[in-house]
Every structure is written in structure tokens, then in C-alpha cells.
């Protein structure tokens, strides 16, 4: 349960140097510290992280995953990739953290810190009485609007039509998000990557299932 979860009191209290050691050394001035700008919520086995790493080399990318074993697996996978690519410094920009994204997101991220946040094949929670456990709800949309900067993007993909419609309904109803059209999706490299490089995306393709995509732009804060 959440009792065993470690999380910082606030984003300033978070020590990122263990997660991205290549970007931090003792001489790094506080104002030069690089920040995580991309989050993969419920990253599973890390397929999206490893695919995004070379595509977005200037960003620090973080996977957040609630299952201990799965998080450990992704950690090992990233360590191995870093060793294999030590000469070029590849994969230093991705990392994984065990955490419950539904509860502790504002502990990790400052207001407007994120440029992109991904929800790839989140657990569907099919039963009506379980819907409040879904990762996109009205309350959580406000948390995501807080963490994502104006102009930033929320990415969603699922093979469950009912969940797709649910996520679209909640994000569209939120005054700080605007859905992007199919033309935008078709030209965006990250949409293609989440369709093809996530473990779930591959599984759905093998089973010849459908993938429903919806992306949203974080709008500017309204004038006070
Ligand atoms: N995104 C991956 C993919 O597309 O292959 C994994 C999808 S898997 C169906 C959903 C993942 O979300 C699981 O690994 C699960 O443990 C994780 N998860 C569920 N609730 C979570 C939460 N509140 N915080 C973080 N991770 C969560």
C-alpha cells in the first residue's frame, strides 16, 4: 500500500541526482539543475521510455510505476542500456520511479514543469463502481493542468473504447485542455511512438485490436 511509498514532501525536496546521475555532479549550481519535463504515467515495462530517449535527447524523461517488480525491471533495463551505450552517453535522460501517480504527482512536479505527460493503456477499471479509480478524472485533470505548462501536451491511448470515451469526456470538459485533431496526431512523432513502442501497443497490434488516441493541449491560464 502507499504506506511503504517514499515520496518527497515537495518538488524542492526531491533528489533527482540518483535517477539521472549523468546530469548532476557536486559542482552543479542549483539554477543549472535540469528538470524532468516528460512523464510516462504507469510506464509498465518501459518501452515508451526507451523509445523516447533518443528521440528527445534534451529532455529528462521519467516513468512512474506503482508495481515494485515492474519498477525494478525497468531500473535494470535502463542501467543495462546505459552500460551498453556508455560511449555515446545514451539513455542517461530516462529514469523510473516507483510511485502512485494518482496521489503524489504534486510532490514531484512543480507548477508547469512538464512539457508532455503520457497515459498509455492505463488500467481500464471496467466496473462502474471502480470508475473513480481511473487515472483520468475531473480532480486529476486539474492536477495534470497544474503540472503541465501552457502549450504542453497530454497524450492518451487505450484499446478500450469505453475508457477512451471517458478520458476524452473528462479532459475535454476541463477548461484548461483542448483536444488536438487527427492531423496533429498524424504528424506527431510521440503519437507514433506510443502507438508502436509501448508493450501494450505491441500486444494490441499482435491481437489485431484497435488503438484509440486522444491528445490535448494545455491552454494558457485565463486572465485573473
Ligand atoms: N504504459 C504501459 C504500456 O503501454 O505498455 C503499461 C500499461 S499497463 C496496462 C498499466 C500500468 O499502470 C501498470 O504497469 C500498472 O502497474 C500501472 N499503474 C496503475 N495505476 C498506477 C498509479 N496510480 N500510479 C502509477 N502506475 C500505475
UniProtKB/TrEMBL annotation:
The keyword tRNA processing applies. The keyword Methyltransferase applies. It comes from the Eukaryota. Pathway: tRNA modification; N(7)-methylguanine-tRNA biosynthesis. Keywords: Methyltransferase, Nucleus, RNA-binding, S-adenosyl-L-methionine, Transferase, tRNA processing, tRNA-binding. One of its GO terms (cellular component) is nucleus. S-adenosyl-L-methionine binds at residues 42, 65-66, 100-101, 120, 198-200. The active site is at residue 123. It is found in: Nucleus. Coiled coil: none annotated. Its EC number is 2.1.1.33. It catalyses: guanosine(46) in tRNA + S-adenosyl-L-methionine = N(7)-methylguanosine(46) in tRNA + S-adenosyl-L-homocysteine. One of its GO terms (molecular function) is tRNA binding. Belongs to the class I-like SAM-binding methyltransferase superfamily. TrmB family. Catalyzes the formation of N(7)-methylguanine at position 46 (m7G46) in tRNA. Forms a complex with TRM82. This is tRNA (guanine-N(7)-)-methyltransferase. It comes from Nadsonia fulvescens var. elongata DSM 6958. The chain holds residues 95 to 318 of 318 of the full protein.
Amino acid at each position: 500500500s502507499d504506506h511503504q511509498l517514499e515520496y518527497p514532501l515537495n518538488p524542492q525536496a526531491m533528489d533527482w541526482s540518483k535517477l539521472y546521475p549523468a546530469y548532476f555532479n557536486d559542482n552543479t549550481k542549483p539554477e543549472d539543475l535540469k528538470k524532468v519535463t516528460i512523464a510516462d504515467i504507469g510506464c509498465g515495462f518501459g518501452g515508451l521510455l526507451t523509445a523516447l530517449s533518443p528521440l528527445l535527447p534534451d529532455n529528462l524523461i521519467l516513468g512512474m510505476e506503482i508495481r515494485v517488480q515492474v519498477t525494478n525491471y525497468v531500473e535494470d533495463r535502463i542501467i543495462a542500456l546505459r552500460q551498453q551505450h556508455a560511449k555515446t552517453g545514451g539513455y542517461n535522460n530516462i529514469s523510473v520511479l516507483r510511485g502512485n501517480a494518482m496521489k503524489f504527482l504534486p510532490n514531484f512536479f512543480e507548477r508547469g514543469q512538464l512539457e508532455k505527460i503520457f497515459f498509455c493503456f492505463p488500467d481500464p477499471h471496467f466496473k462502474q463502481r471502480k470508475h473513480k479509480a481511473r487515472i483520468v478524472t475531473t480532480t486529476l485533470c486539474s492536477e495534470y493542468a497544474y503540472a503541465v505548462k501552457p502549450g504542453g501536451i497530454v497524450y492518451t491511448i487505450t484499446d478500450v473504447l469505453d475508457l477512451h470515451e471517458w478520458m476524452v469526456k473528462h479532459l475535454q470538459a476541463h477548461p484548461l485542455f483542448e483536444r488536438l485533431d487527427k492531423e496533429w496526431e498524424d504528424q506527431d512523432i510521440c503519437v507514433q511512438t506510443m502507438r508502436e513502442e509501448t508493450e501494450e501497443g505491441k500486444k494490441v497490434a499482435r491481437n489485431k485490436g484497435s488503438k484509440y488516441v486522444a491528445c490535448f493541449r494545455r491552454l494558457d491560464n485565463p486572465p485573473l
